[in-house]
Amino acid sequence: MEKITIETVVNAKLEKVWDTWNNPEDITQWNSPHESWHTTRSEVDLREGGRFVSRMEAKDGSAGFDFEGVFTRVDPQKAIGYRMGDGREVEVEFEERADGVLVRETFDAELENPVEYQREGWQSILDNFGRYVEAKA
Predict the structure, then answer these.
(1) Among the CATH numbers 3.40.190.10, 3.30.530.20, 1.20.1540.10, 1.10.1760.20, which is that of 3-136?
(2) Per-residue confidence at 1, pLDDT binned at 50, 70, 90?
(3) Of 45, 47, 71, 44, nearest to 55 (Cα)?
């Protein structure tokens, strides 16, 4: 299975980046690939074996789905691994640097959509995350 990696640097402290990534109230504010979508609810049980779910919906009500999975690794302020409902694996790394925190996501590509489309969608969500954290700082 092909792996896709995306990343961004967030100009904020590591603790704030980590907390914002994992806080359900914050997730509903930044977790969307496009302004026409939003996350209406989020639940996070941040521990190995814990589950998460984010309900993503088109703002016009035309579509929606649950993005969910089980945490396979939780290394506080360093890394999170999870397995999505369809079995694909995701690794998220948090690396403190002089210019902020590098957030790098590596995920298994799915077979339904082109790799570039998947990369763009996930990158858009990650960029929204970075902007949200920096605006909140």
Answers:
(1) 3.30.530.20
(2) confident
(3) 44
